[in-house]
Write a structure and sequence with these properties.
- The longest helix has 14 residues.
- The protein has 358 residues and is an alpha/beta fold.
- The strands form two sheets. A twelve-stranded mixed beta sheet has the order 9-10-11-8-7-6-5-4-3-12-13-14.
- 25% of the residues lie in helices and 17% in strands.
- The structure holds iron/sulfur cluster.
Length: 358
């Protein structure tokens, strides 16, 4: 069974669509893309210190009063769903499980009509005791960050001895019906880059859906180096030593991950799916459908934006839903065409991944 590893179909550059269409309620941008997938960062705090994200000492975190409160999140999510055409809401961080009011927040969003699909990106520490309550509150899907199943490597990458807690959280998520549990893994050269096949075997055996994410230049230390980054092509090559991979024929619909059907080495047995998120080397910006809110209530039109539009200030100053919706639309209209990593002169944004949440 052969595999075509050509570039994904989304590599093209969208065209500028000219002036903003009057009366269009959606989160359209000037390249004609429409955002329907809202990522909300609930906090910039985290209980891990992953080397590719945060310094060992952590970062100066926002005081809770500066963060979106549960009722403010519910209001902005309501505006997004009812007025702006958002159909998916993903909660991220930092680490969203650090929010004690997470169940309340999810319950408020799951009560919305039309009901958006609700997901969570987490490191799963503490999930073992909360998975069923989150599920009951309306959580539909979960993505867990896990770069290795070896305790020593986990400690080396995250600077915390918490692998067992993460694994217990993943089991609890599966038991609670948050399936398939999606596993997000970042490979670091010289650390866990030779563990890709083993991690895939671990995931397939448990029915989880693993996705490898190329490391992005959003780290607080600004130490990202494209030359040492493990590329999607390398990951595919390594996996092909152990499996047969076939591009999945399901439409991608703007999803970051390119999915592959995984077969045994001789191609006789279907084992599951694996995803590869080639943010850097095989950009999928042309079909991006994401809009983001930071934990301080600012709209980020793109992960790599250098501009943000504050909604929390106007909200607390008494702005109406229509005024907040208009600010949000304008913020998205100005969305950059892409991350600009290939455009020469790339400047890493000030805000780090730990304060965006993916
Ligand atoms: S880099 Fe920006 S435009 Fe590209 S996929 Fe990510 S959020 Fe979308």
């Amino acid at each position: 069974m052969s595999i075509s590893l050509g570039m994904p179909a989304l590599a093209g550059r969208p065209a500028d669509v000219g002036p903003r269409p009057n009366g269009d309620p959606s989160l359209v941008d000037r390249w004609g893309r429409i955002a329907t997938d809202l990522r909300i960062s609930l906090t910039d705090r985290c209980n891990l210190r992953c080397t590719y994200c945060m310094p060992a000492a952590g970062l100066p975190f926002q005081p809770p009063s500066q963060l979106l409160q549960a009722d403010e999140i519910a209001r902005l999510a309501t505006i997004a769903v009812r007025q702006l055409g958002v159909r998916q809401v993903r909660f991220t961080g930092g680490e969203p499980l650090l929010r004690k009011d997470l169940v309340e927040i999810i319950a408020a969003v799951s009560a919305l009509e039309p009901r958006p699909e609700i997901s969570l990106t987490t490191n799963a520490i503490g999930l073992a005791s909360r998975a069923s309550a989150l599920r009951a509150a309306g959580l539909d899907r979960i993505n867990v960050s896990l770069d290795t199943v070896h305790a020593a490597t986990f400690l080396e990458i995250s600077r915390r001895p918490f692998l067992e807690r993460v694994l217990a959280g993943i089991d609890a998520a599966a038991d609670a019906g948050l399936t398939p549990v999606k596993i997000n893994a970042v490979l670091l050269r010289g650390v866990n880059d030779r563990q890709a096949a083993e991690l895939l075997d671990w995931s397939l055996t448990r029915g989880h859906q693993l996705r490898f994410i190329e490391q992005m230049p959003l780290d607080a230390d600004h130490s990202w180096d494209r030359a040492t980054m493990v590329t999607a092509a390398e990951v595919r090559e390594q996996l092909q030593e152990h499996y047969e991979l076939v591009p999945d024929d399901e439409p991608r619909d703007g999803a970051p991950a390119e999915l592959f059907r995984v077969f045994s080495r001789d191609g006789s047995e279907f084992l599951g799916l694996v995803g590869i998120i080639a943010s850097v080397t095989e950009s999928f910006c042309a079909d991006c459908r994401r809009t983001r809110l930071t934990s301080e209530g600012a709209v980020r039109s793109c992960l790599f934006s250098h501009a943000e539009v504050d909604l929390l200030g106007p909200l607390r100053a008494g702005a109406s839903d229509d005024e907040l919706a208009a600010l949000w639309r304008d913020a998205m209209w100005a969305k950059p065409v892409g991350h600009g990593l290939d455009a020469g002169g790339f400047v890493q944004p000030e805000r780090t991944m730990s304060a965006i949440g993916g």
